[in-house]
Amino acid sequence: MHIEVTSGVMATLCAEADRAAPEECCGLLLGRGGPGGEGRIEMALPAANVSDRPRLRFEIDPAALLAAHKAARAGGPRVLGYYHSHPTGHPVPSAIDCEHSTGDLRIWAIIASGQVAFWRDSGKGFSELTCRMVGEDRADHI
Ligand SMILES: [Zn+2]
Asked: 41 C-alpha vs ligand 1 centroid, how far in Å?
């Protein structure tokens, strides 16, 4: 199983992680396909980290989550997953992340040390996804 991600999304993820440090950034991954199947992440939508311990964990602003799911139901881009950063760690799911695994098959992007890794919430923890970077394909949207 592999996913595609646009170069613009990769740039946004790294910029958001830098901006939020030393706190964790977080947000939504939007695009086409999935969840569970192959997909293309075309947009990273930053959200507020409303955790009371934002240096150690993340909690996506519920209003942003609700709005994204509502937009998807109305024909907008699909919610393929979520992203957050590990300001002092590695781009692998932490013990806390594993506690929050729900098995909804969504994609988790984790940004750390200038790297972005993609994981699938498989319900038995996370499995790493291979990811192919693609250019912004504007003709696709017409
Ligand atoms: Zn984490």
From this structure: 19
